[in-house]
Amino acid sequence: MKTTLRLTLTVLALAAAGAAHAQTALLNVSYDVAREFYKDYNTAFVAHYKKTTGKDIKVDQSHAGSSAQARAVADGLAADVVTMNTTTDVDYLAERGVVAKDWAQRFPHGASPTTSTMLFLVRQGNPKNIKDWDDLTRPDVKVVVVNPKTGGNGRLAYLAAWGQVRAKGGSDAQAADFVGKLYKNVPALARGGRDATGMFLQRNLGDVLITFESEVVSVEREFGKGKVEAIHPSASIIAENPVAVVERTVSKKGTGAEAKAYLDYLYSPEGQEVAAKHGIRPRDEAVLKRYVSVFKPIKLFTVKEYFGSLGEAQKLHFNDGGKFDELYQPGK
């Protein structure tokens, strides 16, 4: 009996010791082309967290098209934080009570620690001599782009194409005409940003890829330098990268403080530096100045200027039966 008691106490003591040293784990559910950025960011954050708190922490990543990710979290994927590329995906979660209603006020800059823009990737040497948006409607050019129904990458590419017509003084009718012509040159829609890159470089589909500025760095890391050239069009859209704590998960796990610390570190000079190294535009002006050769000057317009908000754009352009469904009719 005494032996049994001693064994029981030993097991309980070991279990308690294990619990005391249990490593907190966070899950960051994010958009497709942020995979490499968050891999490096997580390494920096884990070291920072250990240095400042003396505690170990582990961060897992999940990546796919941002809208598909938002739906997965809404359906129960236990993310501690979401780091998306369009505010509508976070709003979708807020409407369902998964993140806070006032998520955009929880962190600086509307809870968007970084931004990006849409540009073109062409094959080395730019064989089709693509320089600006109008070239994407030429009959000899095939365009690779993400489906705006499944990824923020695709929605921002569409809005960039529409908005650049407005930025030149064109009307919405002229913008719709232009976008319709562009999508006639799209042979197939990609599911997400990384899928689009794979179509372009691995399947050798298309002549130009519309994607985030940061994808230039990712392509060079994965496929080697010299595979693509980045073409900065005359005008493009400011793409904000919103973040939020997933209240539903952290309230169950007790990881609210850790999740907040994770997102806070994105705003630190160190976090901003990691973003800049991955071609993601930092909010920190000092960091931005150090990377002026990476972030070339380009006429940028906001979503608000021509669309009111991403929520309004979603209803008009991307909901079923919206403008996108009218303009993209493959086979016609």
Which descriptors would you attach to this protein?
332 residues; alpha/beta; D-Maltodextrin-Binding Protein, domain 2; eight-stranded mixed beta sheet; four-stranded mixed beta sheet; 16 helices; 47% helix; disordered N terminus
CATH-defined fold name of the largest domain? D-Maltodextrin-Binding Protein, domain 2
Helical percentage: 40-55%
Mean pLDDT: 91
- Report on the biggest sheet: 8 strands, mixed
Structural class by sheet pairing and helices: alpha/beta
CATH superfamily of the largest domain: Periplasmic binding protein-like II
Radius of gyration (Å) = 22 Å
- Count of DSSP strands: 12
Helix-strand pattern: HEHEHEHHEEHHEHEHEEEHHHEHEHHH
What is the end-to-end distance?
82 Å
How many domain units? 2
Shape: globular
The low-pLDDT segments are 1-5, 7-21
CATH structural architecture of the largest domain: 3-Layer(aba) Sandwich
Topology of this protein?
Blueprint: H1 2-20, E1 24-31, H2 35-53, E2 57-64, H3 66-74, E3 81-83, H4 87-95, H5 108-111, E4 114-123, E5 143-146, H6 152-167, H7 172-184, E6 189-190, H8 193-201, E7 208-212, H9 215-223, E8 228-231, E9 235-241, E10 243-245, H10 247-253, H11 256-264, H12 269-277, E11 281-282, H13 285-290, E12 299-301, H14 303-307, H15 310-318, H16 323-327
Parallel strand pairs: 1-2, 1-3, 5-6, 5-7, 9-12
Antiparallel strand pairs: 3-10, 4-7, 4-8, 4-9, 4-11
Helix pairs in contact: 2-12, 3-4, 6-7
